[in-house]
Amino acid sequence: MDSIISPFQSAFIEGRQILDPILIANEAMEDYKAKKKKAWMMACLSNPNFSIFINGKTRGRITASRGICQGDPLSPFLFLLVSDVLTAITNKLHLSGQYEDFLVGKDLIHLPLLQFADDILLFCKFDDQILLKFKEAIRLFEWCLGQKVNWEKLALSGVNYPRTSYFKLLLILAARQKLYPLYRWKRFNISRGGRQTLCNAVLASHPTYYLSSFSIPQNVAVSLEKITRNFFWEGYSGSKLNHLVKWNLVSLPSKGGGLDLGGLKTHNCALLTKWGWRFAMEDSAYWRKIICSIHSKEPFGWFT
Predict the structure, then answer these.
(1) In the chain, what is the straight-line distance between the N-terminal and C-terminal CA atoms, in Å?
(2) What is the DSSP letter of 129?
(3) How far is Cα 55 from Cα 240, in angstroms, rounded to an integer?
(4) Quick check: helix, strand or coil at residue 226?
(5) Helix, coil or strand: residue 244
(6) For 161, phi and psi rounded to 5 degrees?
(7) What is the enclosing helix (H) or strand (E) of 53?
(8) Given the DSSP bridges, would you call strands 113-116 and 155-156 parallel, antiparallel or unpaired?
(9) Rounded to the nearest 5 degrees, what angle is found at the Cα of 234, between the Cα atoms of 229 and 239?
(10) Among 152, 150, 85, 68, which residue's Cα sits nearest to residue 120?
(11) Which of 11, 70, 125, 285 has the fewest CB within 10 Å, making it most exposed?
C-alpha cells in the first residue's frame, strides 16, 4: 500500500503518522512566509455566516466581522489576546491606587490575578470599594469585548469563610448563594456501582488540585478515606453496613483487582514530585520566579 497510495495521505499506512501532515503543513507555511498574515487572520474571523430563524424560516445571511470561532486553530490565541485586556484593566486600577493586590516574596513581585483560560483567581484585599471597583472593571471589559456577563448567574460559595463576611460579599456583588448538596434521601437510592462512580468522580478527584500543590496531612488523608469508606458501604436505609471486603483490597488499583478508591498519600507524592522536574526544566516560568523570590534556590534544586 505504501507504494500505491500517494505520499499526501497519512492515514492507515504503516510508517505514516497522524502528526506527519501537521508538521508538513507548518513547514510549508513557514517556507511560503505567509506575506499576507493579516488577511489570513481576518479570513478566519470573517468566513462564518449566520442565519436567523424567524417564524421557523431562515432569513438572510449575516457575515461575521469580529469574534472568536469555535474550532478555529487561531481561536485559543485570539482568546488569550482578548482575555489579557482584563489583566491590563486590573493593572491600571492597581497603578491608580484603586486595587490593592499581593506583593510576593522579598522581591515584592506584583500578583493581581491568575488566569487559566476563562478561570480567574483574584488576589486582593477584602474591601468593599476594591470589590466594587473590580466589578466596574468587569463592566469595562464587557464594553471592550462587545458582550455582556450574565450577572443573574453569579453565585458564590464560601469555603471555611466567616458567614458574616460571606453574606456581606453576596450583597456587595448582588450574587446568590451557591450550595452543592447531595440530599440524604437520594443517597439511599444509589447502587454500589453508582457509589463507586461518585467516590471516583467527587471524593477522589476534587482534592487533585490541592494534592498537586501541597502535602496532605496524615489526619486529613485518614479522614477523607474514612468518608469515602463510610459512603461506599452505607446501607440503603442509611444504616451502617458491615464492610464486606478489607479496605486495603478495595483501595487497590483496578489492575490489581481493586476499585481505585484509596491511596491519597501515594497520589499526593506522585503529583508533588512533578514540580521538582518542572523546576529543573522551566527556567523562565513565572511560578519559578515566585518560588525563587520567596525561597532561596539551593545548589541542588528547589528545597522548601
Answers:
(1) 57
(2) H
(3) 58
(4) helix
(5) coil
(6) -120, 135
(7) strand 49-54
(8) unpaired
(9) 135
(10) 85
(11) 70
Q: In whole angstroms, what is the distance from residue 236 CA to residue 218 CA?
A: 30
The H-assigned helical ranges of the chain are 20-32, 37-46, 75-95, 128-145, 163-173, 184-187, 192-198, 208-211, 218-233, 247-250, 264-281, 286-294
By the 10 Å C-beta count (0-12 exposed, 13-18 middle, 19+ buried), 118 is classed as exposed
Place of cell 507555511: 29
Residue 202, phi then psi, degrees to nearest 5: -115, -65
Note if the pTM is more than 0.90. no
How far is the C-alpha of 22 from the C-alpha of 30, rounded, in Å? 12
Q: Which residues contact 26 (CB under 8 A, 6 or more apart)?
A: none
Identify the CA nearest to 93 among candidates 64, 63, 136.
Answer: 136
Residue 277, C-alpha cell as written in the block: 522536574
Listed by start position, the domains of the chain span 75-177, 184-274
Instruction: Read off the pLDDT of residues 213-233 as tens digits, 9 standing for 90 and up.
Output: 778 888 888 888 887 777 777
Which residue carries 513547514 as its cell? 27
To which residue does cell 513565572 refer? 286
**Model confidence pLDDT, tens digit, residues 6-55:** 565 655 656 565 656 555 565 455 555 544 555 666 666 666 677 777 78
The one-character DSSP state at 47 is S
With a CB cutoff of 8 Å and minimum separation 6, the contacts of 183 are none
- What grid cell was written down for 47? 468566513
Instruction: Output the nine-digit C-alpha cell for 127.
Output: 474591601
| Distance between CA atoms of residues 53 and 35, nearest Å | 39
Rounded to the nearest 5 percent, the helix, strand and coil shares of the chain are: 50, 10, 40
